[in-house]
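DM from R.C. (forwarded with permission)

"hey, sorry to bug you on a friday — could you get me a structure for this? deadline for the figure draft is monday and I only need the backbone to look sensible"
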Amino acid sequence: MSAAAAVATLPLQILACGAFAGLTAFLLVVFRDPKRDAGEGVVAPADGRVREVDHEKGLVSIYLALRNVHVTRAPIEGVVEKTERFHGKHAPAFSKRTPHNEKLAISMKTGIGDVSIIHMTGAIARRIVPYVSEGQTLGKAEKLGLIRFGSRVDIYLPPASVKLVAMKGQKLHAGETCIAEVRNGRAE
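My reply, with the result:
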């Protein structure tokens, strides 16, 4: 190869290296897993923004954007009773059709009653990787799983046992941000 030909291919090589470096940086940001210290009360199971709060159902629904950490965490200490995968569609995580998306439901038996954490895929998210198994005991803020790319997590808490404090639009950090206070004043 002549020197002129090598110089002519240099911009293409630089472009390819830049694209690879950009993709690597993107994946490092999306799949990061920072250390988290457990917060007070019942904590958020996922990073993101609160999209809905329903006090009667004990529901807090969280939207995870691509920039959020996608490792989910136990909201309270308990035992994993059941993990169940449901196959479905891949509508955008913020749409009203999301309940028909593929999801992984994790049910926990806790000191405040039964808690359900539902991981849902989005238009880009195609895989939910659970880190837990049935019968496993978890401490508050321990890892539950990973949702690959943007998605949604819904948590259902027993309304008689908690007072939801999360507000629509609030930014949450998994394992740290309090989303509910236990009525007796202390989460087990």
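R.C.: lifesaver. The longest helix spans residues 3-30.
me: no worries. The mean pLDDT is 86.
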